């Protein structure tokens, strides 16, 4: 199989795996991350095949939808074993996917390769701006979280366990994660895009509070 074929088969595999998702991790999220990753690669470089494969597969084994993180990684390894990709490329793809997620405001990122930085940046860009707002409310609704409650305080998380088990409001998620992302983006190309999307979210929040208090 050549690279193009592997990518096309992977697209079908991912579409099938994520079918029916309503938490903001559906095929169209993957499609946007994949496209953004390719756009970032044009400016920032890196191995395009590794970037495309990691972007396409990055949410297939997401921890939120499996009992254990390792379970998700096994699904990806099994898939990669089915196409004749070299062992070293497989390792690089799996390594990116294992490190792509945001795991709490106090948990440091440890992505090292340019390929990984690009996919992580593209994933984070899709978590902010208008799409970020929409995905966050979709997620909150799906998991039964209240939209907003002025009495529920924002909580910063210093470890993944805490972050994973938190049951805050959707508005609080902006402070626990979304507004922090612009400073946790690696490439200059993505930083520029993130700045604009970040200010869009700030405007959204301002309008939201004004409407909440009947100011506007
Ligand atoms: P990552 O892409 O870093 O793994 P997640 O998959 O945890 O991040 O989150 C992707 C998106 O899902 C977030 O950007 C947000 O829109 C939504 N999301 C995740 N956790 C929450 C939450 N607790 N409340 C609201 N939205 C959430
Ligand atoms: Ni994602």
Structure explained in plain terms:
Helix content is 62%, strand content 0%. By secondary structure, the chain is an all-alpha fold. It has a single domain, classed as Orthogonal Bundle (Hypothetical protein af1432), CATH 1.10.3210. The radius of gyration is 18 Å and the shape is globular. The model has no long low-confidence stretch (mean pLDDT 91). The protein binds adenosine-5'-diphosphate and nickel (II) ion. Residues 29, 33, 58-59, 123 line the site of nickel (II) ion (NI).
Give the amount of beta strand, in percent: under 5%
What's the gyration radius in Å? 18 Å
Indicate the CATH class.
Mainly Alpha
Largest sheet: none
Number of domains: 1
Low-confidence stretches: none
Structural class: mainly alpha
CATH topology: Hypothetical protein af1432
Number of helices: 10
> What distance separates the N and C termini?
59 Å
- Ligand list: adenosine-5'-diphosphate, nickel (II) ion
Mean pLDDT: 91
Q: Which bin fits the share of residues in helices?
A: 55-70%
DSSP strand tally: 0
Helices and strands, in order, run as HHHHHHHHHH
Q: How are the secondary structure elements laid out?
A:
Elements: H1 3-18, H2 27-44, H3 48-57, H4 69-81, H5 87-99, H6 114-125, H7 129-142, H8 160-165, H9 170-176, H10 188-212
Helix pairs in contact: 1-3, 2-3, 2-6, 3-5, 3-6, 4-5, 5-6, 6-10, 7-10
């Amino acid at each position: 199989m050549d690279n193009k074929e592997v990518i096309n088969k992977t697209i079908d595999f991912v579409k099938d795996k994520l079918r029916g998702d309503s938490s903001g991790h559906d095929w169209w999220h993957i499609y946007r991350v994949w496209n953004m990753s390719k756009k970032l690669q044009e400016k920032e470089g890196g191995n395009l095949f590794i970037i495309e494969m990691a972007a396409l597969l990055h949410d297939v084994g997401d921890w939120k939808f499996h009992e254990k993180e390792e379970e998700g990684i096994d699904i990806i390894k099994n898939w990669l074993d089915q196409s004749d990709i070299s062992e070293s490329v497989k390792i690089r793809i799996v390594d990116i996917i294992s490190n792509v997620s945001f795991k709490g405001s106090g948990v440091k990122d440890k992505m090292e390769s340019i390929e990984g930085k690009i996919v992580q940046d593209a994933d984070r860009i899709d978590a902010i701006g208008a799409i970020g707002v929409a995905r966050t409310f979709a997620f909150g609704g799906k998991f039964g979280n209240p939209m907003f409650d002025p009495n529920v305080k924002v909580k910063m998380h210093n470890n993944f366990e805490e972050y994973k088990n938190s049951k805050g409001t959707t508005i609080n998620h902006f402070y626990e994660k979304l507004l922090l992302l612009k400073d946790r983006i690696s490439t200059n190309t993505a930083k520029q895009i993130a700045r604009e999307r970040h200010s869009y979210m700030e405007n959204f929040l301002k309008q939201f509070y004004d409407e909440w208090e009947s100011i506007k």
